Amino acid sequence: MSTPSADAPLLTLENVSKSFGPVRVIDDVTVHVRRGHVQVLLGENGAGKSTLIKMMSGIYQPDGGRILVDGGPVVLDGVRAAESHGIATIHQELNLVPTMSVAENVLMGRLPSRAGLLDKRAMRTTARRALDRIGLDVDVDQPVGELGVARQQLVEIAKALSLDARMLILDEPTAALTHGEIDALFGVVEDLRADGVGMVFISHHLEEIARIGDDVSVLRDGSLVAEVPASTDEDELVRHMVGRDIADHHPRRREYTGPDEVLLDVQHLSRHGVVDDISFQVRAGEVLGIAGLVGAGRTELLRAVAGADPYDAGTVTVRGGALPAKDVGSAIAAGVGHVPEDRKSQGLVLGASVNENIGYATLRSTARLGLVDRPGQRRRAQDVADRLRIRMRDIDQTARDLSGGNQQKIVFARWVLAGSQVLLLDEPTRGVDVGARVEIYEFINAITADGGAVVMVSSDLPEVLGMSDRILVMSGGHVAGELEGEDATEDRVMALAVRDVDRDAEDHSEGTSA
Amino acid sequence: MSTPTTSTPSPTPASRLRTGAGTFLANNGALVGLVALCLALFIATPNFLTGPNLLNIGIQASTIAVLAFGMTFVIVAGGIDLSVGSVAALSAMASAWVYSAAGLPGGLSLLAGLATGAALGAISGIAIAFGRLPSFIATLAMLSVARGLTLVLSDGRPIATSPAVSFLGGTLFGIPVPILVLAVAGLVAAFILNRTVVGRSMYAVGGNAEAARLSGIPVKRVLVTVFALAGVYAALAGMLLAGRLNSAQPQAAAGYELDAIAAVVIGGASLAGGVGRVSGTLVGALILAVIRNGLNLLNVSSFWQQVVIGLVIAVAVGIDVLRRKNTRH
């Protein structure tokens, strides 16, 4: 290693640039990662955060500028090279083998052996020591897949530290975690900071930045636009990020003036062990928010209403017509559109074009004699994509290549094209950057202004409070309460959400495992 | 990224202009390989580029190509069909049997063969869609069942085919009928995949079955259709083969499923589903046929031919993997 110097940053990206073909994705950016310091990378999807991370972890090499470790220039020409300098990345998609034990995962690739045989005792002890460092109390013999996402993430952190990592890159580590789990994760981050580990932290949740970060590098369109302390006011951070003011983060407007009509009527819906006797109505022009903890049955409720999952009892009625259970086609024909929880695994065919993805729900209804109306389909998809301002090269671009926000808009576009009047949205802005998020809110306003009805499940409390006209709070599979107007506060929602939860706490922690 | 290989084979004029010749080559590596192969054989032996030999290649390619067209539906929809060789044999045998033993007229015996293939494929499809068996297992079972039934039906002996089926092995206006069948079957398959609702649904189901289901695509019905179509194509291939010999053989087309899968994969389809084109499959089948023909012309033993074919599959798919890796940044 070259001339280590005590007060030099652990890692510096110095004036780095990177182009893919003609597109310059990173332009002259400098970022320092210091010992015992949490450096936040902030920016909209596509701003260049992931490219920077990939440079730090050796996946990409910069075209211009240099990378310094301990003040000396290095070449990180692969993940191994980065690891040899003590740089480890905790990716959003965890690199664990779910069927193998915690200990095997921690020591993957360097399992201790004696005379060619696996030394199980040494494996357990080493793994135990690695887990103890971050205070993670799990059975080392348990298959990793049986742990919840949060603990899997901690296993991965333990694994990185046991590889002598001095610097951790945490790529949206909180995206899939509950409030309690985030607290636990941040506790670990605090400990590591005290130990002198340098960290890079990425999150779309601005409130987390002040809690956990030290300094923020704000990126926009591949350039570094600001370097500010983490205590900076959220509105100012947003201004740096999007290059303009976003006056209202949750611009809910009720503009429907038509006749008062119940569009969606759910009565006594039950599915054994998942949702229990749930009834609610949504009227034209209304947004019903559904809040609750992870595992409260919100997604399951939405999927049952959408016809995606079966249910044991109850009725779902749209505009007075009863829908058959577990029949997505009938629900769509009745005007129901479902934006599922995970757009990548449930919402999109990632390898197919934007055009195809927008058209799936209307493939059959616009066909003649079983033949697809290709020119018409294309024209309509282009039209909707323009209206929703989906940012893409052209309509034939592969869905995989778009940013999270634009991918989510594709799923919305599908239901706009289908003329859906009842939209069931499951975490509609998860992993979506601030700019696209506001566009999605505006879209919700437009749908309801036209007389549509929206049911929105969200774990983002400010979002539920800001965008809903009424809030249904779920807990343990049933309705814990309904809040409206002045009553709808963060405290009241949380008080209802945690009701009965003590008894079910064990179930929940199991239910959240991937 | 290059133009999507998954979807519409004809991009807009604008995107075609922009992507240009480089992308064409990158997306048609198998075609480039086929042309190079033909050039090499043209230089190596004077017998290659002659009318009779080319027709011979077309006839040789037709059985595998028709099987592989059916396999393209299955692989695009994210499945695999190991039973097509056995289904081809049983369908041809059933067609010959209803003619010789039951005395059905020739034209009807041809339809009976196709119906047998459709029924066998639909049974596999139902087991996969509704019985939730992995397609590998369901069609492995069908491979054995169909071959067994072929032996039961024929008592292990060849049965003479009807004139209608034998016609498939003949010539029409000087062109071998198998080549005409190959062309029509290919056009129909391409039409189904590109233009019909069920065809586009196959890409969606293969690309992401859950997203397809939540978009209202009847995934199970699509899967049954896919395997039934593969069965029909297998039956057609089986009767092409029987027609050339004027008899249905109990051991006909054994092992052909692997050649069909190879042709589809060489043609650029992904075994993960959602990607594949009929034109690619045709090129894949032609590559296999040209290699066999060329090696015969060069007097290479059939033992070595198997080695070469295996290497070609590995190299073709290996190049494809590398290409995909490079086009994705």
From TrEMBL, chain A:
SUPFAM superfamilies the UniProt entry points to: P-loop containing nucleoside triphosphate hydrolases
One MF annotation (Gene Ontology) recorded for this entry: ATP binding
Keyword Flavoprotein in annotation: no
InterPro entries for this protein: AAA+_ATPase, ABC_carbohydrate_import_ATPase, ABC_transporter-like_ATP-bd, ABC_transporter-like_CS, P-loop_NTPase
The keyword ATP-binding appears for this protein: yes
Record domain ABC transporter: where: 11-246, 257-501
Protein name from the UniProt record: Ribose transport system ATP-binding protein
Organism: Isoptericola halotolerans
Taxonomic lineage from the root: Bacteria, Bacillati, Actinomycetota, Actinomycetes, Micrococcales
From TrEMBL, chain B:
Coiled-coil intervals: none
Subcellular location: Cell membrane
Top-rank taxon, per record: Bacteria
Transmembrane segments annotated in the record for this chain: 20-42, 54-76, 82-101, 108-130, 136-153, 165-193, 222-242, 263-291, 303-322
Bilayer topology term: Multi-pass membrane protein
Pfam families: BPD_transp_2
Keywords: Cell inner membrane, Cell membrane, Membrane, Transmembrane, Transmembrane helix, Transport
Name of this protein: Ribose transport system permease protein
